[in-house]
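Thread: Modeling a multi-component assembly for a lab meeting

Hi all, long-time lurker, first post. My supervisor asked me to bring a structural picture of a complex we are working on to next week's group meeting, and I have zero experience with this. I have the sequence lines for every component (231 residues in total). Could someone generate the structure of the whole assembly? Inputs are pasted exactly as I received them:
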Amino acid sequence: QLQLQESGPGLVKPSETLSLTCTVSGDSLSNSPYYWGWIRQPPGKGLEWIGNMHYSGRHSHNLSLKSRVTILLDTSNNQFSLRMSSMTATDTAIYYCVGEWDFGNSYTWGQGILVTVSS
Amino acid sequence: QTVVTQEPSLTVSPGGTVTLTCASNTGAVTSGNYPNWFQQKPGQTPRALVYSTSNKHSWTPARFSGSLLGGKAALTLSNVQPEDEADYFCLLFYGGAQSHWMFGGGTKVTVL
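Re: Modeling a multi-component assembly
Sure thing. I ran the full set together rather than chain by chain. Output:
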């Protein structure tokens, strides 16, 4: 069964770059049909899709965040990562890593990690 | 800029029926937007309910159904139960050179 687990800092300073990692178990990133991605949710607010990446190299990003976001796959460690630059207080949110296949036929979420942007 | 719009809140009586909608500022929502619906209860991770407009997951209660309605994606809750009180989010796919997904703002469903 596919399982995802986020890891990374819970606190980031303004203007810094956020780096989060998602460890995947139950499937191999290599040759997987899944798209691996990130979704975030500011406290008390709605969900925001950030972007995703397929092992083939196909990728998609939220157009409003595209210039700040990098998603990479590390097949040797079966992990994928999110880097988001120029963090501000408005980026404070729970960040979820997700695995999605076949336009939502399968949608697996990590438990989420709260990232606070504060000096 | 793609914008997906949902009703901010809806109230329904137990045993009643309520329909949530999901609209796109780019035009009519179609099956090519592969509408997904998620349910989220306080303090929990979102749970997928419906994918590709009307397909249910194995855990989705039969009283939930997805459709296209008047140019929008729709999620209908029938015979509503108290445990259906939650936030519901739709997710739409936009294809093309800059393909991406976009969430709606969510609908808070209150059962009383």
